[in-house]
Amino acid sequence: MVYIKNWTDFETAATDLYARSPDKVRYSVKFVAKTGHLVLKLTDDVKCIKYKTFSSIILNRFESLNLRLLTKMSNRTVRIPPPARHQQNSSTLPIVDTPERGGTPAPMGADGEQASTAAATIPQNGGTPAGKSGGGGGKKKKKGKR
Q1: What is the CA radius of gyration of the chain?
Q2: Cβ atoms 35, 54 nearer than 8 A
Q3: pTM of the model
Q4: Which residue windows does the record flag with biased composition (Polar residues) (predicted)?
Q5: What span, in angstroms and rounded, lies between the C-alpha atoms of 43 and 28?
């Protein structure tokens, strides 16, 4: 687990390692904020390559390597299963009746009737809604002198 010092060597080793065993390769990126180091690590449990830098110039190269590796990792070909030999007739398929969904019901008032939206949002006591006091109204405490 020795760090590779040259970026081009690390880049070619990383792409070669991924090309050899794409199912086993893990790629991790770690930034250590305390020291300002960026550590890149690729491993396939047999071979491990690492690169460490604190230079901001490497960030553009790092971004291009990330883009290249992530496109390779995400461009997996998915096998499409062959179509079924016999097709069902659309008239034999069951028809499922889906009920229409209504909106959210209005909140119920204290007397059991639906409250109007204006009455539900405007408080009656002229200030804050019931149960939610802003913590005001009292005298402000004074701080002691040091």
Answers
A1: 32
A2: yes
A3: 0.48
A4: 114-127
A5: 9
Structure tokens belonging to residue 95: 């028809």
pLDDT in tens, 43-54: 998 999 999 988
Q: How far is CA 98 from CA 88, 102, 127, 135, in A?
A: 22, 12, 46, 50
The most distant pair of C-alpha atoms in the chain lies apart, rounded to whole Å, by: 90
Quick: pLDDT tens for 84-99. 665 555 555 555 555 5
Q: What are the tokens at 101?
A: 């969904």
Scan for tokens 């109204």, then name that residue. 137
Calpha distance 125→145 (Å, rounded): 39
Instruction: Locate the domains of the chain by residue range.
Output: 7-72
DSSP string, 65-82: HHHHHHHHHH-PPPPPPP
